[in-house]
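User: Reviewer 2 asked us to show a designed sequence for the structure in our supplementary figure. I'm pasting the structure tokens here. Could you produce the per-position amino acids so we can include them in the response letter?
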């Protein structure tokens, strides 16, 4: 069955996956990844770049010999463990602790000699610890402002705090797991990484809003017709949008994967991997949260509301009517399970 045909069957309700009914499983998976990511953020922790921690940086163009660059720096600064990365196809970046102006000149000269390049092809810069702390504070402030604005906009747009809260939990889930992957792999966290984090949060929020729009439409109809429980209506909304979410995610991942794997691993464009890793991991995690976390959590948050409980009771009183509406004749086994399980779960 092609994706178009599957999408049509899911949209009409002929087939159905039990996203909401199996919410405990999805929550358990999400909690496990968040817990693991939290541990990784403590140890080994994030590898912050020079922009956040301060230090000195040297860039060499015309040579990609990382070992020679490392030995050159260590000969001038004994006891220093420089961080050396390749930049592009024919360049090297070396980062060290903050050094004096005299040491900067000596390191530049040694790098030029060791890598056999003109002195003008070796540039240096120093970032003070106070400036690095300022960048860190600004990055954290950007994240806080983002979450506050999103909470307000979601609450006003959907006219309910539950959707705003479910969206925020999904966004925190995405951010923590993406940061955990950074800690696991050891990629350097730079301002470009922060931009990547904000970008994937925006993508995840967009995906969640699309699903929630359909949830609002389906549940409003359910309250009028009394033909589905709140959970069944929400589950139908996820089924109606899941193919769109998967397609959008795949299309978004293709160029990001090209930047991350081809640009970094094959072409050596190391400066691109900071943002591309955040986009790659965040896009996948964001798609998961919008499907498996946000809507099931919304059902949990609203399940005790008097209006929702009255709807669920009215559907159950009709016997099999609500079940038949949620899983029409010809539905898959998954769809039948969805109708039965979610109906009772709410």
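Assistant: Here is a per-position design you can include in the supplement:
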């Amino acid at each position: 069955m092609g994706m178009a045909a599957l999408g049509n069957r899911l949209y009409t309700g002929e087939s159905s996956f039990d996203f909401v009914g199996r919410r405990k499983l999805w929550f358990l998976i999400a909690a496990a990844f968040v817990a693991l990511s939290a541990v990784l953020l403590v140890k080994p922790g994030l590898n912050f770049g020079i922009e956040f921690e301060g230090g000195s940086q040297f860039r060499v163009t015309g040579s990609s010999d990382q070992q020679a660059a490392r030995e050159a720096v260590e000969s001038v600064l004994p006891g220093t463990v420089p961080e050396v990365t390749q930049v592009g196809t024919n360049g090297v970046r070396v980062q060290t602790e903050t050094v004096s102006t005299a040491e900067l000149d000596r390191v530049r000269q040694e790098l030029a000699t060791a890598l056999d390049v003109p002195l003008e092809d070796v540039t240096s810069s120093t970032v003070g610890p106070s400036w690095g702390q300022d960048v860190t504070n600004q990055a954290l402030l950007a994240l806080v402002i983002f979450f506050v604005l999103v909470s307000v906009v979601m609450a006003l747009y959907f006219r309910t705090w539950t959707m705003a809260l479910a969206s925020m939990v999904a966004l925190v889930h995405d951010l923590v797991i993406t940061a955990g992957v950074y800690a696991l792999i050891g990629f350097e966290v730079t301002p470009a990484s922060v931009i990547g984090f904000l970008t994937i949060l925006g993508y995840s929020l967009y995906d969640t809003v699309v699903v929630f729009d359909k949830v609002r439409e389906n549940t409003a109809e359910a309250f009028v017709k009394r033909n589905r429980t709140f959970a069944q209506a929400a589950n139908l909304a996820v089924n109606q949008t899941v193919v769109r979410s998967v397609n959008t995610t795949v299309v978004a991942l293709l160029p990001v994967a090209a930047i991350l794997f081809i640009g970094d691993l094959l072409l050596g464009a190391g400066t691109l991997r900071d943002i591309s890793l955040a986009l790659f991991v965040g896009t996948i995690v964001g798609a998961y949260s919008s499907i498996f976390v946000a809507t099931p959590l919304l059902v949990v948050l609203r399940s005790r509301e008097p209006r929702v409980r009255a709807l669920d009771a009215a559907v159950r009183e009709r016997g099999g009517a609500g079940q038949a509406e949620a899983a029409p004749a010809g539905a898959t086994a998954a769809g039948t399970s969805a109708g039965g399980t979610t109906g009772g779960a709410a």
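For the response letter, you might also mention the following. Residues 320-346 have pLDDT under 50 and may be disordered. DSSP finds 13 helices and six strands in the chain.
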